[in-house]
Amino acid sequence: MADRSSFVAPPAVLRPALRAWLLLAVGALAVAGALALLLAASRTPGLGDRLPWGADFFFRGLVTHVVFAFQVWFLAMLGAALVLAAPAPRGVAPAGVAAAGAGLLLVPTLAGWGEPSLNNYVPVLDHPLFFAGLAVLAAGVAGASLRALARPAPWQGGPAAFGIALAGLGFLAALACFVLAGWLIPAGTDPALRDERLFWGGGHVLQFVNTLLLLAGWQVLAEREFGRGPLPPALARACFTALAVACLAAPLLYLRFDVLGLAGRQAFTQLLWWALPLPPLVMGGGLAFRLIGHRRLDWRSPATLALVSSLAVFALGGCAGFALGVGDTRTPAHYHAEIGAVNLVLMGLVHGVMLPALGRAPRPGRLVRLQFHLFGGGQLLHAAGFYLAGAAGAPRKLEGLAQGLHGAAQLGGMAAVGIGGAVAVAGGVLFVGQVLACLLRREACHAP
After folding, report:
1. How far apart are CA 89 and CA 93, in angstroms?
2. What pTM did the predictor assign?
3. Nearest to residue 18, comparing CAs of 92, 89, 74, 104?
4. Average pLDDT score, the chain
């Protein structure tokens, strides 16, 4: 994947693995959407108590919705990217294992088992089957990561393949953090504290993995669109390496700090603050320079739309991150924008690289463009509304009348949050529907 001419679609024997990972990734978004509808129904008077899953479904469904919308989607896309970065024959098994884990996650959710734990990064249901589902999902992604790291292609190819392979290495570091935390947490620890500390360190490392996916996606899409990446190859590799080194350092913090102590908790936060910002700032600056310097951008191209929209949303989230409040909605402004930027890049990879590699790409028509316009524009409005309301003192993690909103800034900001969220959801629905149709049809599909 070093430049436009060097990217070669995977041969027929490798395409089943790429298709399997894509089906899991986009299927996870479809499941998350279905759960979101059930969540809305569970909050509807007269309907919630009639659902077959009971009146207490809301928080249980919320946990699983978040896990599918973020963890399963992102990790399955990592698996798909690893297929392109390091092609290996007979690579379907890891995707099958990961899909089995995703299926296990739904059993306790629909059966009404396990107490929901809304901890940071990876909320869970406190039930053995849910934890087993997470473990099996992780095993599938770990298998894909190990297979890619053992191949010569990422180390001999261009910076894009190198960055994707290091994202797989970062996932293995996150997995090591989860295992170490589970081993070190004393038996009998309060379940809420146990779950929070279990996923705290590894959850931080997953943010590095998501950032590696973002930067690798920028690299791939810029190479495809402009013939070269945002940065010189050596500098791009340095950015990827810096993030990977931080990932590998994270498990060592468990050797220095008490897993339940405040100092250990703060150590991971400091790792994120000091090691994460610079590489995306450097590559984002290079991408902005590349976009501004290009004489004629092709606004019909999914790659161009993904690059421009993701960079804009990421810049907004980055600015919000350097001016966070304490307990107000400026914090969700930051992380919603950063997550949205990663989503936009992944959408660009699906439309601009992965579906074409499978011979299933729709023509870049109005429907494809609308997905990026709606999702990107909605995310910008959503995050900006959160920041405006938070700067005026609107509290986070509250809803409805409990927020105590007053004044034009708070009310207008939260109105923008709702409108932007609805617009972004519409774009996501169009993306999921079109991509699933392309993946499930035998014949080529074409957008209007």
Report:
1. 11
2. 0.93
3. 92
4. 89
**Contact of 362 with 428, CB cutoff 8 Å:** no
Q: What angle do CA 100, 104, 105 make, to 5 degrees?
A: 120
Q: Name the 3-class secondary structure at 5.
A: coil
Q: At 264, which amino acid appears? A: G
Measured distance CA(405)–CA(49) in Å, rounded: 30
Taking the C-alpha atoms of residue 340 and residue 347, their distance in angstroms, rounded to an integer, is: 10
pLDDT one-digit tens code per residue, 366-419 = 999 999 999 999 999 999 988 888 787 767 654 554 455 656 777 787 888 889
Rounded-to-integer distance, Cα 166 and Cα 154, Å: 9
Q: Measuring CA to CA, which residue among 299, 345, 336, 293 is closest to residue 318?
A: 336
Question: Could you identify the residue written with the tokens 């050596």?
Answer: 234
Q: What are phi and psi of 328, to 5 degrees?
A: -115, 180
**97 vs 82: CA distance, rounded Å:** 16
- Count the neighbouring beta carbons within 10 Å of the beta carbon of residue 248: 16
- Concatenate the DSSP letters of all residues of 79-114 into one string: HHHHHHHS--SS-HHHHHHHHHHHHHHHHHHHHT-S
DSSP letters of 102-159?
Answer: HHHHHHHHHHT-SEEE--SSS-EEESHHHHHHHHHHHHHHHHHHHHHHTSSHHHHS-H
Q: Tokens for 81, please give them.
A: 């990217």
Are 58 and 39 a contacting pair, CB within 8 Å? yes
